[in-house]
Design a protein that fits this description.
mainly alpha; globular
Length: about 450
Amino acid sequence: MANADAITASVILGFATMTAVGGLLAGVAVRWRQPAVIGEIIAGILLGPTLLGLFPGNPTEVLFPLDARPFLSVLANVGLVLFMFGVGFELDLRNFRQIARPAVSVSAGSILLPLVLGAGLGVLVYPWHKGDLKHSVGVLPFALFLGVAMSITAFPVLARILTGLKLHGSGLGAFVMACAALADVIAWALLAVVVALVGDGGWTRMAGKLGGMVLFGAALTIGVRPLLRWVLRLPAVRRHDGSAPLLILVVGLLLSSWVTARLGFHPIFGAFLFGAITPRDAVDEVAAETPILIEQTSQLLVPVFFITTGLSTDISALGGRGYLEVLFVLLVACAGKFAGAALAARACGMDARRSAATGVLMNSRGLTELVVLQVGLSLGVLDSRLASAMIVMAVVTTVIASPIFRGLYDRRLQSEDEAGSPLLPGAAAGDRTTHQGVSILRS
């Protein structure tokens, strides 16, 4: 075991390497009109055993010694907690009623079909992984977890794709973001069920965990939210030029994360819930820059998460059956998500090209998928081989989303949306409220 000073030096070197390589490849990804997260994920894979570890002397072990990796993982998880606060804070479904029915239909379709197909695939491949899983993980939690992982849409990545294309304020862009936000809420709830099910104690313990989570969510909504609004508006808090609100929100999200961890769930659930109940009006009134500061801090630490994930990913070691499994995962993930969302949009009356574009966008996964996979690995419900296949799927589905969407959503459709033509039947031409749906990305 290395001494504390040696471990600290290794963590500093590893963090510096991750920041430099992740930032470099993120810039390359943006230059190629891809989300920055793609470059950071690829950086992690390349720095791990897939490429760098193949060189003489194993540079991966030199740069990221085993003694230092747990501490890098702690940094990564702190970044994730801060990031998930931002995801919760950015959701704004106050005007969701305007497009509730079609958005619910598309969200349900984009969740149910890949969930069923993914769970079915989980039942088929469970014998391949049974020996590498946590001893208490049976076929049911394994299959359910795989189904939930298949049904994820990366709302933050989707929002960045649409913002990069300058479509986040368009009718289709706002509608798809509303669908993705609702789908993510459903997916996180389903993941919470799987997390509770994996633990010892079976259904009784699962019910207890879920009950505790529901009570905690109610306490945050009914008690903490109005208290937080009152505290943020206190004259003493206003006089601190933003430092007091920042301190209050950071302490609050960390304590919320601690509570969910004590309840048996991943800390990210607590951060997400605290972000969702944070009163936006009070924050905007007192210190509108505070969420931005939290986001900037998370942007410094979240790449560490991607790269620590990549360090445990060895695509070169998948073997023949592993590559076959990658193919199965890609087919099930893409077909289920695309068909579920596109067919639901078509059933709501959206035209064929916009329906297909909706399906393509809902198929992007990116960061959120990796968060879910990390939860699965920490629970022992997922092994490294299947996690590698799922990481490949997350990268591929996110990379192909933008170019395929640009091919489907051509200038004619974009011009029609800008002119205010109705997105769905029953909306009058020029009705911008109905056309645009509801923006759930706060400006």
